[in-house]
Amino acid sequence: MIICDMVIDDRISGKKSLIGLFDAIATTDLPCIVNELHVFIALTDGYGTVRLKLRCTRASNDEELFSTVQEVRFPDPLAVVEINMGFCGCEFPEPGEYRFQLYAGNALLCERKFHVSLVEECELETAE
Description:
Layout: E1 2-9, E2 16-21, E3 24-27, E4 32-43, E5 48-58, E6 64-74, E7 81-92, E8 96-104, E9 107-118, H1 121-127
Parallel strand pairs: 3-9
Antiparallel strand pairs: 1-2, 1-4, 4-7, 5-6, 5-8, 8-9
């Protein structure tokens, strides 16, 4: 599972390009709004059609902030199925740790930590 700004899918070669990989955001304002983010996932060992749910939660209390559902078809258990799940207008209400969690039914398949930190504007200018 990889979080990024954009996934480019080359329809001729079938190759995917992941642009702007990240697992943390530093912001000067809260709530922090991320205009667009994508979660790229590669899965194998699936059988038939599977309903997947990707949710973003606060790590501290498991509160769901946003989610999406997608059905995926596995042609056979050895196939690797690549999924791009996109979100717009993602709101992170406070600094801290969040989790992107992928479920098939009630089973948690994998999760990725994501961190939001609050910084002063002068800290961001110094980092540039």
